[in-house]
Records
---
Amino acid sequence: MTELPPNPLIVVADDDVFERMGASGMFLDAGYRVLEAGDADEALRFFETNADIRLLFTDVSMPGAMSGSGLALQVAERWPRIGIIMASGRPRPLRLPFGVPFHDKPYEPAAVLRQARDMTAALG
């Protein structure tokens, strides 16, 4: 069994650069390592090339062939051990993987970080 890195690696996917920077900063300040993706395709490439990723934090609405909810469904299907947290300024999507927490924007950072900590601890 391989050891997990001391600071879990997460993917922050949001097409809004300021929202993405804010979320990335929140996770970096909490001790996580962060990969930033501006759309679902970029996020999927990270998952396909990096086995260390432990969490996806994604917005629901993103441009391109796949939305954030579609990304969450793909990640849950292909990498079922990855934690997923969703956030949006829009209503909760009808189709999300079972058990995926949803936060309305603006979200409470402490609540998101608590879930991230619980998810990454459970994975490793």
---
Amino acid sequence: MPKLTVFAASSPAPTYDRPRPERLVAGNPLRTTWEHFLSTTGDLSAGVWACEPGAWNIAFAPGKDEFFCVIDGRIRITDSTGAAAEFGPGQAGIIPSGFTGRFEVLESVRKYYVLVERAA
């Protein structure tokens, strides 16, 4: 029987990465991910993500959507037309499939995330 995932009751090992050099805009921020849940089919994952200040270009693949809610810190996401939105503690958003733009960490951030990846 599947078990309930309780973030506060688990301590997944962190994984670390940095933006790809060709996408980097400012800084070279360390990104840390604690994946608390991965579906048996691999198309849904959820956890906590943290990052140092910096900026990079993003391009979401077709079929990939992300819901997020900032726990602490501040980010700005700007789309390819220049429209920008900032998010701070308690604020949430969705980065949709096919989105292109810039992701900026204005203040060291931690956020909850849910990623859905399905065939495009």
---
Amino acid sequence: MEIERKYLISDLPEGATDYPYHLIEQGYLSTEPVVRVRREDDSYYLTYKSKGLLEREEYNLPLTKDSYDHLILKADGHILTKKRYLIPVEDSDSLTIELDIFEGRFEGLMLAEVEFESREEAEAFAAPEWFGEDVTFSGEYQNSRLSRLA
């Protein structure tokens, strides 16, 4: 089960891009249900996600590079590319901000996601000051939806 909150970011705090990051490329074979292929650095995955906004089922299956290269060509819509910075949440031993800075078609878009162990933890989360609008429940910024934009 994936439980996460998502925020639109307009201004980065100083040092946000000094943290470790992953290079991500992903495409969608289906958006209902969500079936995605992703390259994250030198790892490859096929992911299934159920419907939902705050909470959804998620299953990741490893792929070989050859399988990924074959499947990404079958993706519907746009291929998304981004850098994902991993920023520890202050005063938390377990939470990490995943700051996505998009490249290519969506250059300039920045989103922050935080994953939680429980719905209660997600609902109690106090976002850092630099976070913008909470877009968790709009669905507007789900990557599967972005992939379909004209």
